[in-house]
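Collaboration report, partner site 2.

Our partner group contributed sequences for two proteins of shared interest, and the home lab folded both. The records are reproduced in the order in which they were received, starting with the first partner submission.
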Amino acid sequence: MSSPLPKISIVTPSFNQAAFLEETLLSVFEQNYPALEYIVMDGGSNDGSDDIIRKYQDRLTHWESAPDKGQYDAINRGFAQSTGEVMAWLNSDDKLTPWALKVVGEIFAEHPEIEWLTTAYPMHWDIYGRATHCGYNGGYSREGFFRGEHLPFGHWHARGWIQQESTFWRRSLWERAGGGLDPSFSLAGDLELWARFYKHAELCAVATPLGGFRVHPAQKTALRAEDYSEQAKRAFLLHGGRIPSRAQNFVNGWLAKLIRFLQRRYDRRLNGLPGAKLCFHRGMEGGWNIMDT
């Protein structure tokens, strides 16, 4: 007998994103996930966003529109209204893929050992909501994160950041990691949160897209990319991250590959660098397997 799907709480912070907000809301509602708790926290928009929210208020668990102290303040207050076992936030110009919540719910139900989950195939949407990019990033590990592999914006040591729009976690992990986003990181609060999560649990990735980041001219991260990158570095260093030299990075990479090869060959864990954990669907059999890659 399969485990019941967990309740998923999603918070959408919103401010003057009426051009995209309805598409964001529908990307959540149209999944028809049976145990959804959806909360919208609008910062007092004056572009008609509140009319869009009112249109769907019967399907929302909670919503409000009033001035706030910024995006992460709104998200924290939204989560304070939530009760779901699994949590995530989705910005008001981004979207989930149509299958995301059922995939996430099934994996958390089948694998209680997984405490947070993201995609191995991050996606981008364009201004019209079309998927324009989706690439495999190889998965994630704690060691790689604290070596700078997932810092944003393509430094030599980086190979792709953890996509916030596609990341979900258990409430128990959120509470152990402090129970809130740090608003002093006004742009890179996501990476600062991931650093705290990694002190408690490994991140597992699933081999299917879960959500996407919309690229458009008014996108805050794109407009302030340099500021975001600097905040991300500050959070990374604050939590003990250290970027190795190019030579060390090369050696570490080959050492990790050798250890994973020996683990697979001899079917036992060796001391060293663990591989990234990926979830793969079992196909006709149904359900999900976890593998070290």
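Second partner submission, folded after the first:
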Amino acid sequence: MAKNYDELAKDIVAHVGGEENVSSLKHCVTRLRFVLKDESKADTDYLKKRNGVITVAQAGGQYQVVIGNEVTDVYDAVLRNSHIKGVGEVAEDDAEDAPKGNLFDRFVDLISSIFQPFLDALCAAGMLKGKLPCLLPPGCRQLTVSISSSTPWATGCSNTCHSSWP
């Protein structure tokens, strides 16, 4: 039997400043994501203490009310009990479509996203390079030196990953 979230939904809308203060409403897996016209009208302290609300966060221009696993039921109750038009479900990290941060931060994000798929392979190469001589018998250790010296790019990559470990 499903719980009735109408009272919680009405209370949340009332304490974010009312329907007239809500520009848009979305939800992700655990949060109601309000875009408010005036965040000072929201009663954050009340909502944090409210039964059924885990906490409240303000990030990325959004007023986020953390509900938990029942967020879709509460979201449906908010839409049912108000004139707020919902956008629907969004990905957890999809706060806004506009790029965030200054130019340097966006550049670092770009470089990180380019190299992220290769990090596992680079770290594995470094681990193999470090462990292989320990596992081979003494007569075969010269083989590992000749292999790593014939592929200097692999040596450089594995040294980079290996030296960044604590």
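Feedback sent to the partner group on the second submission included the following. The first strand starts at residue 22 and ends at 27. The first helix runs from residue 6 to 15.
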